[in-house]
Amino acid sequence: MANRVWTETLYDAYGQSFNIDRIFFESKTEHQHLLIFHNAKFGRVIALDGVVQTTEKDEFIYHEMLTHLPLLAHNAAQKVLVIGGGDGGIARELCKHTALETIHQVEIDQAVVDMAKEFLPNHSAGAFDDPRFHLLIADGNDFIRQTEERYDIIIVDSTDPIGPGGSLFTTSFYAGCHRCLNPGGILVTQNGVPFFQLDECLSSGKAFSQLFSDWSFYSAAIPTYTGGIMAFGWATDAAELRAVDKATLQARFNARQIETRYYNPDIHLASFALPQYLQKALGQIADA
Ligand code: SAM
Known about the structure:
Elements: E1 4-7, E2 17-20, E3 22-28, E4 33-39, E5 43-48, E6 51-55, H1 59-74, E7 79-84, H2 89-95, E8 102-107, H3 110-119, H4 121-124, E9 133-137, H5 140-146, E10 151-157, H6 171-179, E11 181-190, H7 194-211, E12 214-221, E13 229-236, H8 246-256, H9 265-270, H10 276-287
Parallel strand pairs: 7-8, 7-10, 8-9, 10-11
Antiparallel strand pairs: 1-2, 3-4, 4-5, 5-6, 11-13, 12-13
Helix pairs in contact: 1-2, 6-7, 7-10
The structure holds S-adenosylmethionine.
S-adenosylmethionine (SAM) binds near residues 87 and 139.
């Protein structure tokens, strides 16, 4: 019998609920309310400020799509920046790419890192101890504004634009990412569920269109990011990277011998196919 039912508060008038069998951690950190609990369907769940961040059951979809897709499209990345990502799932998937030399991660909340390591250890799976990995506890927006580092790929694994995550959806932040990308670099972002958060795609898309010569979104459906497909922002000045063909992706994927449960070259290509309502809304930005 569940001790408590927890309802997500991301949206008004609607929210998914989880029976809580056990609470592992609940506290206000320096930046946000952090809750970690167990649910019979999704295993251990991390929620920040009332919003599901990641669950043991479906995290692989999101973390594989936000790492392997840009890395295989780029194919020569040596240095990657992660903004956010405190649970370590992105870092875990990045470490599978042996050609990567440096992974910088800028996460604002030490408590998320510590509690995720303790209660969801399979998310980071030792990535935080990889000699290529370097963690900085700071605001990603402050970092991107000041750093002189340059990266081949920047992955924004942020919360929704609530609380500290808000600054990671601004044009000035994206301009900082553009500045910090090496030639041929790619920016990918967690960009919300367009069925409920279309405005996030439109505002990110508008910023991308002003800063990058090629931009779009790709998608995947992650059950606990409710509302259908989640959109991932894609922005680069190397337009050809969005058009890598299946045979090339397959050869790259095979060569890396990376074990995945969701990502494969077919999904890679298909994920850039967007529903009509989203294409139409984004088309108005491109025409503006
Ligand atoms: N997959 C989740 C999603 O799609 O919403 C995101 C998971 S991850 C836990 C989000 C991380 O972003 C959190 O660890 C949070 O602390 C971090 N974060 C939020 N705002 C930030 C900021 N301004 N700078 C750096 N990290 C930030």
